[in-house]
Write the structure tokens for this entry.
Amino acid sequence: MDENTKNLKIMIVEDDPLIRQLYEQILSQKGYQVICVAADGAEAIKLYRQLEEKPDLIILDFRMPKKNGFEVSQEILDYNSSTDILMISGDPLFDRKAVISRGVNIMQKPVNINILLQEIRTIVGY
């Protein structure tokens, strides 16, 4: 683990409790600071706004209750356009062009953890 990893703050937004727990556990073990975890889109927006220290990266599921990942990413980027977001989707109807046009990074489910970790390093620039 290097100094960059220790300083990187991540927010996880995932409605599946097993996947949410897996992301949190693996990222924490790899030395990342998981500063916030949300189980749906509405909770994600609420918690994001309450955070004094904003995350460096948000890992965001696409298909969730209350607000989907696209809606969440739009609201967060409207609030802070420099936020890095990695949206993960297993939905075949997922509109990749609309998401990419907003500057959101995309991964397809199922997620390979090693590829996820590499994507995180690529997005944050180390």
Q: What stands out?
A: Strands lie at 9-13, 33-38, 57-61, 84-89, 105-108.
